[in-house]
Amino acid sequence: MDDPLNIPPGPYEGPLEEPRESATESAPGHGVEPSLQSSVGLVSSVVPEWTAQRPGPSGVEEASRRRNLRHNLLLLLSLTLAAFVLAAWILVRLDSPFGIFSTSPQEIVRAQLLALDRGQLRPAYDMFSARYRKQVSFDVWHELIVTHWRMFHGKVLRTGVLAQTGPGATLEIHLRGADEREYRARFKLIRLAGRWWIDDVHWAEEASDQNTLRT
After folding, report:
1. Which of 17, 38, 43, 154 is most buried per CB count within 10 Å?
2. d(CA 13, CA 130)
3. Has this prediction a pTM greater than 0.85?
């Protein structure tokens, strides 16, 4: 009977050996190097991109130049608008035939003469006082102006001295008409509701005071 304690070793039995690590795993630093290389590669790929997005000196100069250009355009637009408003105000106040902004007897007289010379009869008629317009209708006044149009298309030669008493004033204007004759217009004005109105006017030829025309 075989001795159970004297069993020959089988083909797979033998001294146990610890598994050896591969050369790659056992080499110092080989287990960390791939991760480090990938991290370095990632950083290397990100840094150039981030650096390219940063505005360099040329980008800063370009942004500053655009801001200056925008500022200059806004300034130019503001100055142009201010000049336009000022010019419009001057034209309306001094050259407008409506006489709305006339603050003196001379201005309202000049405004009516300018309106007559331009053929703007309705605005010229509206410069008369309510009393005058009640006495002389626009149709009657319009016919009178059309009949003697050469007299009212004239050039101012000189202006007389303004005579003012209280709310009333008188002013004489000397003109040369389209017929080359010289005329004198005597305006009577009155100040009502904060502005001047033409309350009456007489036109006469300088050579003869008898040839008087009341408009």
Report:
1. 154
2. 138
3. no
Q: What digits encode the pLDDT tens for the residues 2-52?
A: 455 455 555 544 454 544 544 444 444 444 455 545 554 544 554 455 444
What is the full DSSP assignment across the chain?
Answer: ---TT-PPPPTT-----PPPPPHHHHSTTTTTHHHHHHHHHHHHHHHHHHHHHS--HHHHHHHHHHHHHHHHHHHHHHHHHHHHHHHHHHIIIII-TT-TT--SHHHHHHHHHHHHHHT-HHHHHTTB-HHHHHHS-HHHHHHHHHHTHHHHS-EEEEE---EEETTEEEEEEEEE-TTS-EEEEEEEEEEETTEEEEEEEEEEETTEEEEEEE-
Note the residue count of the chain: 215
Q: How many CA atoms lie within 13 A of 6 on its CB side?
A: 3
Backbone angles phi, psi at 126, to 5 degrees: -70, -10
What confidence tier does 211 reach under pLDDT thresholds 50, 70, 90? low
